[in-house]
Write a structure and sequence with these properties.
This protein is an alpha+beta fold. 16% of the residues lie in helices and 35% in strands. The protein has three helices and nine strands; from the N terminus they run αααβββββββββ.
Length: 215
């Protein structure tokens, strides 16, 4: 230690400091690259990634958008979705106009006993205008001896009953009539034995085509 102190002079210190600065300064200068001194030869392969390029530069490198390609084939139809909830009930529609009044049914009746002949003979008749009708009739029959009574409506209605002596029954008939011109609706009856029509009625109701009101 005494030896170092005897040889530690100003000249030795100055020379050592100068050598340190010279070495340090050269090392510092070696880390500074001159401007525009790095080219592609100094870059490592794939060293420059998209993240290291400025956004503005990346936008400048992007080319113009190409034309749209041809439309691809239609894909398969997907499965039906679940059924939706039932919607609220809509408001009631406006009531349609009142239809025309229909014709009153043709009606014939008698309440006085009338003997029924062995051969078919008219019991009631009603003249009808051209049109379509539903014709119905009821006859109250009383037999004074065993008898078979048959009643018919022109147009297809028919009813038959067999009665014992002093028995009473009611025959009901109905038929559909379609007349192109005016014509009668006729109820006829016949009896194999003694019988009487005590009461009868004949009703013809005209049927008109109805046009449905939308709504």
């Amino acid at each position: 230690m005494d030896f170092l102190r005897r040889h530690l002079t100003y000249a030795n210190i100055a020379a050592t400091l100068a050598l340190f600065l010279a070495l340090g300064g050269g090392a510092y200068a070696a880390t500074q690259l001159p401007r525009n001194s790095v080219d592609t030869a100094q870059l490592k392969k794939e060293a420059v990634t998209a993240g290291k390029i400025a956004k503005k530069t990346r936008a400048q490198l992007q080319g113009a958008r190409g034309p749209a390609g041809a439309q691809g084939p239609q894909g398969k139809t997907g499965k039906p979705g679940p059924k939706g909830a039932t919607g609220a009930r809509g408001a009631q529609g406006i009531q349609g106009p009142k239809g025309e009044a229909g014709d009153l049914p043709a009606f014939e009746v008698f309440g006085t006993a009338k003997p029924i002949a062995p051969t078919a003979a008219p019991v009631l008749a009603e003249n009808l205008a051209a049109g379509s009708y539903v014709v119905s009739a009821n006859v109250v029959i009383e037999a004074t001896a065993e008898s078979t009574v048959a009643c018919t409506l022109n147009g297809g209605g028919e009813a038959v009953a067999t009665l014992g002596a002093a028995k009473v029954t009611t025959l009901s008939l109905s038929a559909a009539r379609s007349l192109t011109t005016a014509g009668p609706a006729i109820l006829t009856c016949s009896a194999s034995g003694a019988a009487t029509a005590k009461y009868a009625n004949l009703v013809a109701i005209q049927v008109k085509a109805q046009s449905r009101v939308p709504g």
